[in-house]
Every structure is written in C-alpha cells, then in structure tokens.
Here is the input.
Amino acid sequence: MAAILSHRQTDRSFYLALLVSLFLLALIRPAYAQNKAGDAKRFHSFASLAQNSLASVSILHDSLTRWARAIENNDQVGAFDERNRIREIMNRLGTKNIIPAADFSIAVGRKALLRGAKDSAILAGENAALYAPDYPKSHFFLAKARFNQDRKNVKGYLLAVAEGVKASFADRLERQSLIALGLKYALCALSIAFLMTLFLMLMTHYRALFTDIASILPSSPEGKWKLAVGVLVVTAPLAVGGLLLFALALPLFLLPYLKKSGMIVVGIFSAFVFLAPLAFDSMARGMIIGNADTYRSLYLLSRNTWDHETKAALEKERRANPASDVINFAIGLLNEMAGNKDAAIEAYDSILAKSPDNIQAIVNKGNTYFGAKEWEKAASIYKNAIKISPDTVEAHYNLSKAYTEMFQNKDSDAEYQKARSIHLKKTDSFRAKAGVNPEKKVIDFQITKDDLLLFERALNEKTRKLSESLWNSFFGLYTYNIYRKVSLGFLIALGVIYVLWSRAVAHQTCLSCGVA
Here is the structure.
C-alpha cells in the first residue's frame, strides 16, 4: 500500500483502480434502468414454445412437426429428410433465416437436454443454426449442447460460440444492445476507477496541498489545525454538491502537484466528463431500438426474415396508424414471404387504394400471385407496373420469369433484354441471386434504409426520455442542463489553473513538499 501511495507510483494508481472496479462489477451487476419487462418479453423461454407459435408460417408447420417427432424418437434419418424439406421451403420463400423455425428447434433441443438425450439436442442445435445462421441464439444453444455432451470438445463448442458472437455483431439490433450494455459497465467501471485514483492522488499529495491552503490564511495554522482546515476546504465541494462536485474539484486541487503521468490521468478524466452525456444517449438509443417492436420487425424484414413477434407488432402498429404505407407494405411483404397469399394481397391493395401508382406495392403484389403459381395474373400486374413506370427493372425482370413459366420463351427473352438495357448491373445482380437460390425466381422490393430511418427518427423522443431517466439514476439531482454547466465550468477552471497556477506556483509547491 505504501508503494501505491508513493510519489513515484501515482501514475499506476489509475490502472490499479480500473482493475479493482472491473472486479467489483463482475461481482455486483449494475441494476439501474434495466428494462426487465422488455427483456422478459423479448428473450422468452424457448422451453415454453409451442407448435402454435408457427401459425404465421403455416407452410412450415407440418414439416417441423414431423421433424420434431423424429428428433424425439432419435430418428436421425427422418430428421435429415424433414430438414431437407424445410430447406427447400426456405429456398422457395427466398430467405436463409427463419427465426421461428430456429426457435422451435431450440425448444426441441432444450426438451431433449432435460431428458438426457444429448445427441438429439446437438442435432436440434445444428438444425437451428441451419434454419437461421444469422441468429445468435442458434449458435449459442449449439455450443451449450456440445458442452453438455463432451466438455473436452473445446474446439466444438468454442467454434459455435464464435459463430454466435459473429452473428451478434452482424445484427444491428444485437450490436446496439451489446454496445448499450458495454457502455453501462464501462461508465460504472471508469467512475469507480477515477474516484479511487483521485483519492489515491489526494493521499499522495495532501501534505503539500494542506500546507499551501494554510499559507493562504493570515494565521497560517500548523499541526492539527492545518490538517483540519485542509480537510474542510477539500471536502467543501462534497458538502455543497455531493460526490460529483467533489470528484470534479479534486483535479483542480491536485493539478499543480502532479507529474506528467498524473496530468495524463486528469486529461483522460476531463474527456470522460465531457463525453459522458454522449454515452448515455448511445445507451438509450441502443435500448430503445432493441426493444421497439415495430422497428425490430421492420429491421428483420429488411434482412428478409421475421420472428414470433413480427406479425403481432406490425398489426398492432397498423391499428394505431392504418394510413402508414410502410407498415402496410411490411405486412404485405411478411405474408408474401410466409406464403399467406390473401393477407399479402389485402395489405398491398390497401396501399394501392390510396396510391394506385405505387410501383413497389404493384410489383410485390404480382410476386404474391407468382408465388401462388398464378402466372397469368402475375404477368398482368407486371405489365400494369411497366405501363406506369417503364423503367422499373424489377417489373421487366419478373415479367420475363412469368413468361418463362408460361413457356413464352420469346417474350421472356425480350423482357429480360429490356431489363438489361435499362440497368445492366442490377439485372445481372438479379440473375446472380437466382443462381444462389433458384427457387426464388422473382425479385421483391424490400424494406429500405430510408424506411428504417423514418421510424428511427420517430423514436428520438423516447430515446431522449430514457436517456434522462438513465442519467437521473446515475447522477441523481444533476440534470442534463446543470451537468453541462458544471462540467463546462470544470473544464474552463482546469484550463485556467493549468495555464496560470501550475506555471507560476509549481516550483514553490515542489519546495513546500520537499520534492525537487
């Protein structure tokens, strides 16, 4: 301890304090501003998942039921056959991620673990990762199943964990949640570390500080009176403004006594003080976006997938805002992807009733009929889209596919060439997509970044309120505005002291504490 408090070891105190604070946080999780209700809703127990959860994906229901039965009977051949059928359905729907299917697989796997069927659990986990490779929980469950089967298989479960972490950072919603959680721990760790560091610095230099404080007074007290006066002056900010003001005052008291390493710590502390509000804004944004049902649903659809709550969230938003073209389009796209023709047509028609020239809704409506193998109806709709907007590449390309299905190869080639003449690179990219997934023959208009941005802006007010709530839970009585004024005053005072006091009095201070 004496080494830590020595003048030479002051620069190491910050790193020691940071390590101690991180250790404390590992033992005591910060509990402020946790959205427990939101977490319980979002991350539901897969063990309670029933087959009825797949009602919105009726095309998958029968195959998944047979697959689950094969897993329960340890029938690997039957499970393999049904898995291939499910993959064919996914290709036909044009998505590589069906989160409800992955959740269902995880539920089956957990049930297998409970009854001790470890091989079946691993098979369920592998299938979950296959049904939704971009879904982190699929990989994490697979890692758990492998760990339960053979703890020595370090490579197996670590690879699954690595895939889960990779998927988490690739998913914006997961990434935002991780950033928010990381910032929460970082703020707590840094706050504790800086408080401990500043206290250690005070213990190192208090004699020189108290001597200079006493020299200012006319009576120049000595002994216990000097100590008492010094303590009163240093703790005055604590009595007036609490722990925050005390923490901001300590660097002002200590700056003239610090060496280069101590100056660096104070500089880092100043940056921390300045950037703290931005960190709270970022935390709030991550929590709001991660728990905003409508935004989450739109984001998943923009990635060509959905989860259990997508349909309910979009329909709830539609009831609250029935005139929203984005929501109606999203509902149409969701039902089209899930193979629910009538619901998709109804959603697209609700857009076209107000905006008959909405090309995106027209083309996707045609795609819905295409998916139902009503080629002539689809072709008629594509032709209408071309009449309204002749340069729509998607309409020409999809019409070409409809002609192919009707064995009108000459017309098909003509439409394909028109698409190439309008936008060669886009048409080639459509063809490349068809090469990767031959079952998905037509091109849908998707939820765009602009659509997401529109709803993200609508969340700004909620973000601001949550940011203030987080702030109040952390700093108590200091509101944003008060903190800005106090922190600005601190930075100005620190600059003035550095320019004037440290240069003019530094040499005298060193003589007073006996340091050359």
